[in-house]
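FORM 7B: Structural annotation worksheet

SECTION A. Query
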Amino acid sequence: MSEITKRAKWALLACGPLVLIAGGVMAESNAGVLSPRLPWIAPSRYAKKTNPIQADATSIETGAKVYEAQCLACHGKTGAGDGIRAGELDPRPNDLSKPEVWLQTDGELFYKVFKGRTPMPTFDKLLTADEIWHVITYIRTLAPEPAVLGSRFDIGAARRTSIGAVVAAATRYHDAAVHADAKAMAAAAQEAAQAADALNSINLTDQDKAIADLWKSSASSLASRATALASASADASDALDHFTDALALVLRSFGGVDSGLVYQFILPTAGAAGDALAWFQTDSAPRAPFQQGDSSGKPPVVYVFGPSTSTK
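SECTION B. Predicted structure
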């Protein structure tokens, strides 16, 4: 992470009572190194689009042919992101066999195929709209459809409360950072580690296997990164990046706020290409000095966590 990004992040800590501060979503490179990367969020006008093509055997067959011709080399036969070209790409292709695919609408998937994002090419000139809709129908067969509530996986209020405990500890960490209270920061980081360990001890034996596996991997990652934050030196910037990335994944997949909302704002930074400055608030108006967005005037993108999960 560049020094510019670090300074911007910690400057933001002094801007008001946010829920949490961190760098961008982490993407794993082909060298196995985590690096900050902007989340890929479809505009709402795309996210609300519905697939006009019936998801029947004919559509699946057509989509399979499109996938084989255009997607197989990178995403692999099962969609696991292990195609013959995958090792050449940074970041690696997304795993389309994971249940998180079902947290995206057909319109969101259409946008990502249509627009592309490096290293994934844009397909707006290579495929017709119908071909994209067909391939989305096929992609849906690569991951088993789990039980969902709205656009997040329903694991029950008690489990979401355990996630909320981690968020609350992260809030205390932020409050301590605002006041440059190293002792309180250390205590809050320890609370976050304990809350994450408690969350990691929960097994979802009453859920679909795919959801149980996703929960276990997400909770394990959150616990390890919370422990790293608690063990971090005075410059905890990178550890905070990793911890918040893991917490954001849990929130996107499972929720964690049953009353009120938490908003995640995301802006590019002046650091390396693709770096992101992300922060969480309990109010919907972005804090100073980011009300005006980036240098082009584009406002921050917003992800909303609460009773349902959506983009705004």
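SECTION C. Observations
The first helix runs from residue 3 to 12. The chain is about 45% helix and 10% strand.

SECTION D. Sign-off
Analyst initials: ____
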